[in-house]
Amino acid sequence: MTQSYTNYILHLADNALILGQRNAEWCGHGPVLEQDIAITNISLDLIGQARSLYQYAAELKGNGATEDSLAFLRTEREFKNCLLAEQPNGDWAQTILRQFFVSTFQFYLYQSLLTHSDSTLAAIAEKSLKEVRYHLRWGSEWVIRLGDGTEESARRMNKAVSELWCYTGEFFVPADYETAAGSDPAGLKDAFYSKVREVFTQASLAVPENVFMHTGGKNGMHTEHLGFILSDLQYMQRAYPGCEW
Amino acid sequence: MPVVDPDQLFQDKIDNEIKIEPKDQMPDAYRKTNIRQISQHAHSEIVGMLPEGNWISRAPSLKRKAILLAKVQDEGGHGLYLYSAAETLGMSREEMINDLHSGKAKYSSIFNYPTLSWADIGAIGWLVDGAAIMNQVMLTRTSYGPYARAMVRICKEESFHQRQGFDALLVLSRGTKEQRDMCQDAINRWWWPALMMFGPRDTESTNSDQSMKWKIKRKSNDELRQNFIDMIAEQIKTLGMHLPDPDLKWNEERKHYDFGEINWDEFWQVVKGNGPCNKQRLDARRKAWEEGEWVREAAIEYAKKRLTS
Ligand SMILES: [Fe+2]
Ligand SMILES: [Fe+2]
Ligand SMILES: [Fe+2]
């Protein structure tokens, strides 16, 4: 397998890990106990997906790479997650919307990967899809609940839309390694936005038009947030190199 | 016809090991004691998420991160069962949470200590969950049915937590010098607070007698503490670490470990709110609750709309 294909797997893994790391910040601080548990559950699923993907990438890479060396010893510029995944939690509305967007994308992406010629990747996609289906349902329900809840929750949802919409376009601009891996994210664009429109309509949320879309994450050009995420994430492995934990 | 004293009837049920259920007659004090104890236990689970949650973002491997996240989530689940058990006695979760935030209700003082290194996560699993289990295993046989049943479920997870904590320390104990130092330092800091988890000495404990008579408790604070010390004093041998108590010694006559004096002044200070993290812990809980208010309101409002539409 080529370096480019490994990069594709790393890209998928980084998306899952970085969003999982973000969601985990809610653990113990959620708005109500049941939802504290729910967001932690999603975080656990995402970290589990990331682990399967890193383990596979490590296998492809060889040379003693492990899931941990890939997660903890790469630099900001080597991370390939979409910018959306690294955006701050903000309030519950922003966290919900970020999750809803990512889950919607992952849902169509993993579905398309079920028939991928690499059976290992297809198997990871199949397992992940079961979880993502639930994340998508949970996220959709919350977008609707907040959009159609109180005046304040609607205001906060609209603000979240204006904060995060500009990061949705990146999903559909293929990086070289995606094209090389036979993945066609641009082909998922219509399905993604039509699902978003459907949920936004139920939530009484307006769909923004003509928004400039930020890109770069997939190729290692991140927002300033990622460096801080990594300084937490990687702290122990950087401070105590080469240890078993 | 002989006059039946309801309190005597109640005590007879207890003595005959018949569980008390939510709709049963019970003395007011029994209800109150259970509400106080179960809600305090629920609060401890929730506040207990904070010190360990402090290391989720920095866990040293993906496996440890997943284990820790799942553990802290379990504690949230425990809080949920316990709030439900307490609600069967007629107090709402919201009221209980308000009492926590106002300082009227207590939670376990152990969570007012800081987690300063990764080893603290192992030490908490091993010592803090370990001490909690001593108490909770006893509570699986407590006289109030819903509390006893909640405990059965919780105990299974707690013993898992303890094993995971011990395992994390075992890895450290076999690691580099820095890792072994980190491990010993965590044990040094958590040992005495863990012993304080069993509460004051029996001679000083105010609620104990009645609680024993009602079989809410079945073992005294000192008994449980001694069982815990005997267990840990053996387990630590596998770690090749030591407990920070020069007086700890096997007593062949008693068939128990002797141990040194607990710093009761520190114990009471932390109970009174002067522990290293009392303020931070309560502030964090209040902040989460206040910032979540609009979310809870929106959920209620949305549910109402569904109902009427
Ligand atoms: Fe606990
Ligand atoms: Fe617990
Ligand atoms: Fe536990």
Description:
The complex is a heterodimer of chains A (245) and B (309). Chain A has a single domain (3-239), classed as Up-down Bundle (Ferritin). Chain A is 65% helix and 0% strand. Chain A is built from 11 helices and no strands. The longest helix of chain A is centred in the first third of the chain and has 29 residues, at 33-61. The model of chain A has no long low-confidence stretch (mean pLDDT 97). Chain B is 67% helix and 2% strand. Chain B is mainly α. The interface between A and B is large, with 48 and 47 residues. The structure holds fe (ii) ion (3 copies). Residues 45, 48, 75, 129, 132 of chain B line the site of one fe (ii) ion (FE2).
- Spatial strand arrangement across the major sheet of chain B: 1-2
Assembly of the depicted chains:
heterodimer
Bound small molecules, deduplicated: fe (ii) ion
Question: And the CATH topology of chain A?
Answer: Ferritin
| Helix amount of chain B | 55-70%
- Helix and strand pattern of chain A: HHHHHHHHHHH
CATH class of chain A: Mainly Alpha
- Indicate the mean pLDDT of chain B: 96
Average pLDDT rating of chain A: 97
**Content-based structural category of chain B:** mainly alpha
- Main sheet makeup of chain B: 2 strands, antiparallel
**What is the CA–CA distance across the termini of chain A?**
30 Å
Beta strands of chain B, count = 2
Parts with pLDDT < 50 across at least 5 consecutive residues of chain A? none
Please render the helix and strand layout as text.
The complex is a heterodimer of chains A (245) and B (309).
Chain A: H1 3-24, H2 33-61, H3 67-72, H4 83-86, H5 92-113, H6 119-147, H7 151-164, H8 176-180, H9 189-202, H10 225-233, H11 235-239
Chain B: H1 6-15, H2 28-47, H3 49-53, H4 62-87, H5 93-102, H6 119-139, H7 145-173, H8 177-196, H9 208-213, H10 221-239, E1 249-251, E2 256-258, H11 264-274, H12 278-291, H13 293-308
Antiparallel strand pairs in B: 1-2
The complex binds fe (ii) ion (FE2) (3 copies).
